[in-house]
Amino acid sequence: MLFTRILLGLQALILAVFGLAYFIRPEEMASLSGMLLMDPSAVTDVRAWYGCLPLGIAAFLLLSQLRLQLARAALDLLVLVYVALALGRISGLWLDGSLGQTFNLYALLFEVVSAGLAFVALRRLDG
Known about the structure:
- The chain is built from five helices and no strands.
- The chain is mostly helical.
- The chain starts with a helix and ends with a helix.
């Protein structure tokens, strides 16, 4: 259970930091991946999806630290979210012909490792 608690806490921290960064500085954060936010509605969309969605997930992960019966659901959520992101990123890299773009490759590495660690934590809860 210690591995699960550490993983959930670390993921909560990472998601909260990135969520806050995207909420507070959406233009600067979006530019890291080459996005240009050309309209106030685009800035608002980035604040919501890239800022508040990760903050909400981080809050759930922290709640699962207080209510350990939620740990399995939190790990399931992490596996599903990171696998979906990784599949979307792999598809985009192939469809868009941007295999050499390092931002997406680093993000893909993080997503695959995070999904794998969450899956290992789930297996450990079963065993």
